[in-house]
Design a protein that fits this description.
Helix content is 26%, strand content 18%. It has 627 residues and is an alpha+beta fold. Helix 11 packs across helix 13.
Length: 627
């Protein structure tokens, strides 16, 4: 019997039919094993705690910042940013969730999102900043705070136990989760449930689309984290988003993004009132001062009054971090200020303070005798001399009398809703002022202990100028001044000429750091703390990642109320010991452990210790946050 030849076309069609039939029979999600009673009980706790989370967050109006970098493959650096976008919003969750059952409106369900009709409530500051022409939907990044606020339960989702795992000191149970039926915005991924109360502390995955189409067309993959910010309260703090598909030889473009939340405890006038009263805490008794005030002193006091009003308003709006006595601003930044003031014989009437703007944008400015440096700027600065170069220019602004408009000395001028903060407060310096301040700053640096390390500091400005071509939003100030001129060259042009050529293969040359390298923000009270993290030297050029967005990982801890009594305030008139003019900061090689206090008679700190990356290590504040 001879074998009959089957035409190739018929064979292919037959195989295609078999494939289609198999595809129809193959389930979209893998079957999961039945949960044990203990596992089921923990899942039910997690479902209940998600409802508690939403009730808690409905009372909050946190700030939400999203920074996105579009990336493309690179032969040497693996991938590099090619564009960026920035969004800043204040979210009134009382307007996002509509009723006690958290059922989305009909039009929201049709559009495939929970916050589609609430765009106005989440983009107030973004529009004020002129950032409304973005490619990505800001609602989508905010949506990643929640698994599914309307239908996260066992009727809509399957749960499969994976393992137990510690995230920091918190023991969790890990489950894979997928929807039982398709639906817009249903979560598909993995969750981590802490084993005491049942809070979901992390979830990692994406959302599904009801049509069964490629989900990546509508939703990104993300990793969402929550922290124990108060007893029994876990709230969203950060989300990392990544969509990359490396295709060799092709122009594939992906993205990386970070979203951060803070300001949960702020009491703000976003719902009931358009006004806010500005209060000044920690009043200082100056009764022993002269009984009369001269014209020059009165003028300076008027500027200080405007400064106090503006700083207090920015703190209440969640844009400037409150200070911690003996914290990062005083111990690190304040010491650098002294290292510049003393050798230059600068006699300021009032003490110079440093404050931290809580945005990721790279910017700085002055308000009266306060120097404001953004978190994004401080995170990316690799060394003490690089910080000093930035502070030197702000000191020059203060010494040259480049202050903000004194109309803010009238308190009523600052009674406006937070969305107007960026429009109402003008803290920009003119190009003329920046030019004169940059020249004066070079004088200060050349007279300081940093004069022999200026080429190292100049590397930062070389890297900033190089990346500014693609990271335009990162270098677009929202409150203060950019470090760069409109043509992309640094204001400190003389310092920039001292920089050696950027060399990716020189692993000892660290020009700038990735975002988030040094500081963390307490999402509850907005205070800044140093990261308690080990520092590693780069093994290759790809490890440098200057100004880049990176994944987020937290070593979770449970909130503990400190039982220690507050430290006694120093007696009035107690002398303040200042270091010698050439004294540096105590800079440990590894900031994971605080340094021991020096002997009582030791007034000159030790010299900075080098870090593995070749720069001076940052000091540890020794202050542990409630994170």
């Amino acid at each position: 019997m001879t074998a009959r030849k089957i035409p190739l076309v018929i064979l292919l069609l037959s195989l295609a039919g078999v494939s289609c039939a198999w595809a129809k029979k193959t389930p979209k999600y893998e079957q999961v094993r039945a949960l044990t009673p203990e596992q089921s009980a923990l899942v039910q706790k997690a479902i209940a705690r998600e409802k508690v989370l939403i009730k808690e967050i409905k009372e909050r109006t946190p700030l939400v910042e999203t920074y996105i970098q579009d990336i493309k493959p690179d032969v040497k650096l693996y991938q590099v940013p090619v564009n960026d976008q920035y969004m800043l919003s204040r979210v009134d969750f009382g307007k996002v969730f509509y009723d006690k059952t958290y059922t989305p409106r009909a039009q929201d369900r049709k559009k495939g999102g929970w916050f589609k009709s609430s765009l106005a409530t989440v983009t107030g500051l973004t529009k004020v900043l002129g950032l409304e022409n973005f490619t990505y939907n800001p609602n989508g990044f905010m949506q990643m705070m929640f698994l599914d606020p309307s239908s996260f339960d066992t009727q809509h989702y399957e749960f499969g136990y994976v393992r137990r795992e510690f995230l920091g000191s918190v023991r969790t149970w890990v489950f894979d989760v997928h929807p039982k039926v398709n639906g817009n915005g249903r979560f598909y991924g993995r969750i981590w449930i802490e084993d005491q109360i049942g809070n979901i502390v992390r979830f990692n995955g994406t959302y599904t689309h009801s049509t069964g189409e490629d989900t990546s067309r509508y939703y990104f993959h993300f990793d969402s984290w929550r922290l124990n910010v108060q007893p029994g309260i876990w709230l969203p703090v950060a989300i990392y988003v990544e969509e990359t598909e490396r295709i060799e030889g092709e122009k594939s473009v992906g993205l990386k993004a970070q979203t951060h939340f803070w300001g949960y405890s702020l009491k703000l006038p976003t719902r009931d009132s358009e006004n806010v009263s500005v209060k000044v805490d920690d009043a200082v008794d100056k009764s022993e001062d002269s009984t009369d005030v001269g014209p020059l002193q009165a003028s300076r006091m008027w500027i200080t009054q405007a400064e106090d009003n503006v700083i207090d308003r920015l703190v209440e709006a969640g844009l400037v971090a409150p200070t911690i006595p003996g914290g990062y601003e005083e111990k690190v930044l304040g010491q650098i200020v002294i290292n510049l003031i003393v050798p230059n014989n600068l006699a300021f009437t009032d003490q110079i303070h440093c404050r931290v703007l809580l945005s990721n944008t790279v910017e700085t400015t002055t308000v009266g005798n306060s120097i404001l440096l953004s978190k994004g700027l401080l995170d990316s600065l690799p060394s003490e001399e690089a910080i000093a170069s930035v502070i030197a220019m702000e000191l020059a602004h203060i010494a040259l009398g480049h202050h903000i408009d004194t109309r803010y000395a009238f308190n009523d001028r600052l009674l406006f809703p937070d969305e107007s903060t960026f429009q109402r407060i003008n803290m920009y310096h003119s190009d003329v002022d920046n030019g004169t301040a940059s020249a004066k700053a070079m004088e200060y640096l050349n007279n300081s202990m940093y004069k022999d390390k200026l080429p190292s500091a100049a590397l930062y400005f070389a890297q900033l100028q190089d990346r500014a071509k693609v990271l335009k939003q990162l270098n677009s100030p929202k409150l203060g001044d950019s470090l760069l001129k409109e043509d992309g060259t640094p204001w400190l042009a003389q310092l920039r000429t001292m920089s050696p050529a950027l060399n990716w293969d020189d692993l000892t040359q660290i020009a700038a750091l990735p975002l988030g390298s040094w500081l963390k923000t307490d999402p509850w009270d907005d205070k800044i703390h140093m990261l308690d993290a080990k520092r590693y030297a780069p093994m290759n050029a790809r490890d440098k990642m200057p100004f880049e967005v990176t994944p987020i990982f937290y070593k979770l801890q449970r909130y503990e109320v400190s039982a220690a009594p507050p430290a006694a305030a120093p007696a009035a008139g107690a002398p303040v010991v200042q270091p010698a003019p050439d004294a540096g900061i105590v800079l440990p090689a590894d900031s994971a452990q605080p340094q021991a206090a020096p002997p009582a008679d030791q007034t000159q700190p030790a010299a900075p210790a080098p870090t593995p990356d070749g720069g001076a290590a940052r000091p540890s504040t020794g202050v542990q946050g409630q994170l």
